[in-house]
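User: I'm writing a tutorial on reading structure tokens. Could you give me a worked example: one chain, its sequence, then its tokens, then a sentence or two explaining what the tokens reveal?
Assistant: Sure. Here is the example chain.
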Amino acid sequence: MLFKNGTLTGFVDFDMVVRGSRIFDVCYCGTSILVKGFHASSKREKWLELFRALIVGYQEMCPLSSPELQTIQGMLVAIELLFIAFSLETHTDGAAQCNARILDWLLKNKERILG
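And here are its predicted structure tokens:
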């Protein structure tokens, strides 16, 4: 994300570099933000609003299809599963446990994520 004077001015997106789901980029950005503030319940609540705004902003620059929008929850889950596996493989158990808690929270808040 690009900012100028504290205002979002655009996105840098390399979706043309590799073949894959475009929704991965926005979901990866969203989970990265969630990880940073996951320890505080108030930040988790704020994340819900921020993530919805991230999707809206992304769509203004790069419209997503209905099927892409329907994969958001699944992609968020897949990203957390990838990071759990990576953390276990690299013996960073604390990171794996954190990602497992985030995965659990995402699943419990499925209906709230996109409002």
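What the tokens reveal: The first strand starts at residue 2 and ends at 4. The helical segments are 23-37, 41-61, 66-70, 72-89, 93-108, 110-113.
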